[in-house]
Amino acid sequence: MGNWIINHGLTAFILVVWMGINIFLFVWFYLFYDLGERFFYTRHLLGSALAWARAPAAVLNFNCLLILLPVCRNLLSLFRGSFVCCGRSMRKQLDKNLSFHKLVAYMIALMTAVHMIAHLLNVEWYNNSRQGVYDKLSTALSNLEDTKNTTYLNPIRITDLIPTYFVFTTIAGLTGVIITLALILIITSSMEVIRRSYFEVFWYTHHLFIIFFAGLVFHGAGRIVRSQNSEPAHDATFCKDRTEDWGKIPECPIPQFSGGFPQVCLFVGLQTFTVSVTSVLELQLMKRGFKMEVGQYVFLNCPAISQLEWHPFTMTSAPEEDFFSVHIRSAGDWTDKLIEIMQQLPEGAQGPKMGVDGPFGTASEDVFDYEVSMLVGAGIGVTPFASILKSIWYKFKESNPKLRTRKIYFYWLCRETHAFEWFADLLQVLEKEMDERGMVDFLTYKLYLTKWDDGHVNHIKVYPDTDVDMVTGLRQQTNYGRPNWDKEFEQVRKENPTSVVGTFLCGPEALGEVLAKKCGKYSDVDPRKTKFYFNKENF
Length: 539
Description:
Blueprint: H1 2-35, H2 40-46, H3 49-66, H4 73-82, H5 88-94, H6 97-130, H7 136-143, H8 163-169, H9 171-188, H10 192-197, H11 199-206, H12 209-219, E1 226-228, H13 236-239, E2 257-259, E3 273-276, E4 282-286, E5 297-301, E6 311-314, E7 323-327, H14 333-343, E8 353-360, E9 372-378, H15 383-397, E10 407-414, H16 421-436, E11 443-449, H17 454-462, E12 479-480, H18 485-495, E13 500-506, H19 509-522, E14 531-536
Parallel strand pairs: 9-10, 9-13, 10-11, 11-12, 13-14
Antiparallel strand pairs: 1-2, 3-8, 4-7, 5-6, 5-8
Helix pairs in contact: 1-3, 3-6, 6-9, 8-9, 9-12, 15-16, 18-19
């Protein structure tokens, strides 16, 4: 329990506060509309559906205020810089921004469903009251005219109205339909299978948020739900059974009603600028007023492919270099087209114009705040660690006294041998640098090939004792299979009995769940002993 509190306590507290606010808003507004004297006559027409429509609306307003905040990348980068002086737990919350964004979206979807169903019932009951289906009071309330001295309660003003027509011809009804359709498209296109396989679908439909918020702004302008005015004084409990005396006796003046003022809150942030590309699979872009930190990422746009599409890529260069680079693998139509364009360029020619949005902060920025770091990359997920290891190399060359890190464990898991090729050169340079400085133990790296063929097996049988690995050319032999994480964490804890160890992952969710559990399992509650803090990249 102590280890869980160390790693997840603040996150749980934030979620409890968020959920508490949602529950409070729902209960408060439900009771407000269900018990409030101003809504006595409105409740008579609509019953409990009034409160069931308005309470979710309050929760929706709160969560629509929050939904954009976790994805305002500039704001998150600003906060990350502001929290440098704060504890690790506070900064780690910024790395959970997408998880919180999804939770808020789920709450919006749930409250939208409740709100919509309740209002569909409200329209039906408004219509029935207007047609005189219910009691004498309902009919009298529905017949109130909107003249100089009175205001209506029932927004349906004619007796032969089709409810569907009302939904599509009122401001509240039409914007409600538009908002709901936009929300359905946004949520369904955000499913993992669609986002991974058809990123363009996810990207374009997510921009329906503009229509969603535009509709939200105007949704309440129709003021469909109305409440009784305080003037003239009309005692509903006394007058409800005396409808024939309304306006004839002083105690029962004709009641007047009005709609509340619509409310909505928005928050938006954007930033862009442009640079040029000079090579093929590894894109090197010149820095122009561009400051970066290790492990950060940027969004790239290629107008020659699409004016609207922006894709995230982790920078693989070090802050000390005079350019920044990204490595791009084929993973869809956009990347395939970009690689094709670059391959067709004549040697020495300048590439197409590229738009760059960023850089934006990630969990990997904190790697140098730990004495010991475990870096775990899967496939192309090694890219943030390329930046980190390059920066370490520069810091060693410059004998940087601010380097606090004294030990790094690096694990790289790949399914194919060619994935190791571009990164092996960097590891060879680091091996040589560590040897020359007598710091062989500073970097421990292990490479894992999770898929192989018979050719690899036969080669190992024929040449079992080669000095360098047949796959990477490094002195460290490639391991076949997957790491035994219990063994790895036990070894790290044994070699660093009093250290705080930062565990950083850029890889799949399933691996993240495993590492998060191991961090909790092998952390010691005793503050004087080893503790593991889990950090994961999110895009």
